[in-house]
Amino acid sequence: MDMNLLLWIPPIIVLIVALVLCLILVKRGKGKYNAYTDNLDKKEWSLKDYHYIGFAWCAMGVEAKITKPVATLWNRYKHNAYSKILLYYGKYRGSEQMYYVYEANKATLSVFAFVAASFFAPLAAYSNHDISLAYKLDGIAVLAAVGLPFIMDMSLNNKLKEREQALLLQFPTFGSKLVLLLGAGMTVPKAIRKIVADNTENTVLMTELSEMLRNIEAGAAETAAYEEFARRCHVKEINRFISVLVQSMQKGGQETALTLSLQVQECWNARKGMAKTLGQQASTKLVAPLMLMMLAILFMVGGPALIMFSQM
Question: In which domain, by residue range, is 174 found?
Fold first, then answer.
């Protein structure tokens, strides 16, 4: 048999494996996991219509078998991912269900990347008359299937960081209004309800405050609802503020507004520090575009002079 034909066998086998795997997952998962995906936002979960593929992959338990030699480290990593989902989506949004959705989304993306790269590998190699291209694309397929879930976990870290930054930027204004209303004689729940009712922006902080009020109306203890709110925010300045608020409510007295005003000042200081850091980061990101603009200007100004000098 011609050696060139033998070289085509591995890419074809990889393609067949990818297609068979996809067909098996579609057969096992289609129509079985609609309860997990029906209420998902299409903008946030663009692959929601194909998540059943990822659910089927997770149900097969292949991941557990592959990671068995490093089960302890892998379970620790997965627990860390679950904790981040809990923080980002919150208990009241069904974080356990969202964790399964998140894992299914990662698996679906990996399967799609593997199948797509495996499919185009022999086609690209045949079009370019270069069998080595098929091996390169198959290598990319494997790397994409393995690496994309980790990239998505890194993206989740960035989302959590942005969420915490947004909460810290929004909280000092809320704290100042709360202290003002408490000083005017309002109780804490009434003051928070007024602030939320008067708000016209759909921010992360207002979403969390609204959920906190719903928990109180549903019968949860006020202090427990405040502490749960602080845990969901996962911002140390907010945690300290809520801790002081709960202690003041338990002790009673008229010093609540004065005590909280000191915590609000700390929140403003933290916000100023974050704003300064974000400003420095923004100025750093502008360096590259400015350098490109400078090079373009130098080329426009100095280019004709260099051309004239070379023609002399």
Answer: 165-277
